[in-house]
Amino acid sequence: MSDFFDLTGHGAEPIRYEVRASSRRRTMSVEVHPDSRVVVRVPARCAPHAVAAWVQSRAKWIERQLERFRRRGPAAPPYRYVNGEAHRYLGARYPLLLVHGDTAGVELTGGQIVVSSRGSLDPGKVNALLRAWYFQRAVELFPVIVKERHAAFFERRGHPLPALAVKAMRRRWGSMSPRGRMCLNVDLVRAPRRCIDLVVTHELCHLEQKYHDAAFYRLLTEAMPDWKEWRVLLQAGGIEG
């Protein structure tokens, strides 16, 4: 169920935003989309005045994202999965090289992402092979990062190492369940390593601080003093929370 509200007092025109409540959520988040839609996701039974106050506290961030999309212009065209097209891995851009081989697979070599297949290399096949490769890289890398970030700060505070799941997530970079199960978005493997550190550290902070309040951000700053620098890159996608 959705409701629509206006955020006033910021700029000449009010900012229209949609509130979507879900019984599965335990924190609030806001998304700003390239088409200027603003979606606020909240836990079920969250009081309307609390939602309004939280959105008001994020007003400057929302305005910055809207302005960023206005300056950026039209959204980037969708991937075509052809030779030479650049794709990211750990923050770096690598051109695709499509080759016919004895086996189907993907390899990062010689500054290129080489996609091979015995049969057709149509865009759908290349996309499927790349998605499988990214998922495998994420499954291998993310547990290492979680263990490192946990050992560096959270272990000595008495928090157990959380269970980890890697999956496709349309709206969030990560989440932490009330039972201490962390989920990370597979597409994070495309981002710079410190951006991954930030998301992992952010979710680990939820072991101690449930809400995104002042105490949460003090803890995040203590655990990762330079987190604001890396948040800028993640916010380029228009998602916060």
Task: Write a structural description.
The protein has about 240 residues and is α/β, with parallel strands linked by helices. The protein has 2 domains: about 1-70, no CATH class; about 85-240, Zincin-like (2-Layer Sandwich), CATH 3.30.2010. It is about 35% helix and about 25% strand. It is built from 6 helices and 12 strands. It has helices at about 50-55, 60-70, 125-155, 195-205, 215-225, 225-235, and strands at about 1-5, 15-20, 30, 40-45, 85-90, 90-100, 105-110, 110-115, 165, 175, 180-185, 240. A hairpin with a 7-residue loop joins β1 (about 1-5) and β2 (about 15-20). The radius of gyration is 20 Å and the shape is globular.
Observed structural traits:
241 residues; alpha/beta; Zincin-like; 2 domains; four-stranded mixed β-sheet; 6 helices; 12 strands; 37% helix; globular
Q: From the alpha-carbon coordinates, what is the Rg to the nearest angstrom?
A: 20 Å
Largest sheet: 5 strands, mixed
Query: So what's the overall shape?
Result: globular
Number of strands: 12
Percentage of residues assigned to helices: 25-40%
Overall pLDDT level:
90
Give the termini separation.
20 Å
Number of domains: 2
Strand content: 25-35%
Biggest sheet: strand arrangement: 1-2-4-3-12
Structural class, by secondary structure, is alpha/beta
The stretches of 5 or more residues where confidence is low (pLDDT under 50) are none
CATH class of the largest domain: Alpha Beta
Separate helix tally: 6
Named at the architecture level, the CATH assignment of the largest domain is: 2-Layer Sandwich
What string gives the helices and strands in order? Answer: EEEEHHEEEEHEEEHHHE
CATH fold name of the largest domain, please?
A: Zincin-like
CATH superfamily of the largest domain: Metalloproteases ("zincins"), catalytic domain
